[in-house]
Amino acid sequence: MSLFHIDPCDLLVVRDGRPKADASVGQSLTFPYPPTVAGGVRTRVGSLPGRGFVAGAQLDALKRVAIRGPLLSALSGEGGVMFPAPRDALLVKDAEGVESLKRLTPLDDMGDAVGDFIDGLKPVGLRREQHAAAKPVSAGAWWSWRLTEAWLRGESLNLAGDDWASGRLGALVTEGRLHVALGAGGTNVDGALFETRGLRLTRSAGAAHQPLSVASYALLVDVDDATLPAGMTLRDEVAPFGGERKLMRWSKATGVTLPPAPEWLKRHVTDGAGCDVRVVLATPGHFAAGARPAPEGALLRGGDGLTVTLTAMAVGRPDGFSGWDFAAPKGGRPKPSERVVSAGSVFWLRLMGSAAEREKWLARVWMQNVSDAAERRCDGLGLALVGKGDA
């Protein structure tokens, strides 16, 4: 496996699919979907400097190049790898302005509640003793690994501590760029102005009066070297990615690693006759039945005496994504739209079986893609983190 940074020289534009026929502004997604990044990686692998894409005869092999990610990675300071905020973390603020972080859990006692609950799954919410007069506020879009691990472990986070203050990042900032269409002679077309909005992967890191003090981030993607076609590799280079052919610095990520499964988690999974765990998706997941993983899929597959049971899930509304099929004739065509489970979604599972089989399950799920279809796992969809389940 090879970790690479994709660092925008200016902005990162990943169009959201809305047509510009009636508007002169092209909007960007808040973060690129894994298949988009996988396509960019495969394009770079199949390209040569000064010659462009030269591997048209090996498209099938290139489509099997597998990735993990993308995640957000800090290029400066001590931020390290950032993970999407988990959906079972609810930050609320009361009338006095005091914030508190509450943990959503599967509910056993619903009383007289009525809803479109899914058979066999518990609803997820706050326990009665956690109810208070307060309103939800943003807990941030990205969390540091230190915060993420503490949350997976089941710890209460100190909202007054430095980790909470410095370990969160809000939604990436967007900026606009104004362009003019060029005619056949290379000159501008009168009145043909249009704007594109892209992601700025920086944030202010200094005092309010030090705007030039910024923290820089890049996309972090892990490329499976074993899936690269013979004689091909991903190189350090400056090359386009995303919309408007914006230039990116593609470079090996030095000094960065993806976290291994913690020892406390291994002990939790192997203790006793069974255990409850939570799986948090670090990238959006793709499941054939919509939000619910297939029983025979990578996440819930058991065997050899191991049973994996889905007991609850917190997934929110589905995200929709598409793309462009460059291999299609006449310049390509749009790909069909698909729905994915958003990053940060949480699945509560119960593992029953021998300690050895539960340990094997953890090894094949931790920081691996767990979408149902092998093709979608290859595209980077469904990167999984595992934490302790609720008592």
What does the model show?
By secondary structure, this protein is of the alpha+beta class. It has two domains: 2-80 and 171-252; 263-388, Sandwich (Immunoglobulin-like). It is built from seven helices and 27 strands. It has helices spanning 34-45, 59-62, 145-153, 162-166, 263-270, 355-365, 374-378; strands at residues 2-8, 25-26, 47-48, 52-53, 67-74, 81-84, 89-94, 99-103, 105-106, 124-125, 134-137, 142-144, 168-169, 173-182, 188-200, 202-204, 214-223, 237-240, 247-252, 274-281, 307-314, 319-321, 324-325, 333-334, 338-340, 346-352, 384-388. The strands form eight sheets. Strands 1, 5, 6, 12, 13, 16, 17, 18 and 19 form a nine-stranded antiparallel beta sheet that branches. A four-stranded antiparallel beta sheet has the order 21-26-20-27. It has a three-stranded mixed beta sheet with strand order 2-15-14, with no helix packed on it. The longest helix has 12 residues, at 34-45.
Compose a concise summary of this entry.
This protein has 391 residues and is of the alpha+beta class. The protein has seven helices and 27 strands.
Strand count, sense and barrel status of the largest sheet are:
9 strands, antiparallel
**Tally the helices: what do you get?**
7
Q: How many domains in all?
A: 2
Report helical residue fraction.
10-25%
Task: Provide the structure class.
Answer: alpha+beta
Rg from C-alpha positions?
22 Å
Got a strand count? 27
Mean pLDDT figure: 88
The rough form would be described as globular
Query: Into which percentage range does the β-strand content fall?
Result: 25-35%
Low-confidence stretches: none
N- and C-termini, Cα separation = 36 Å
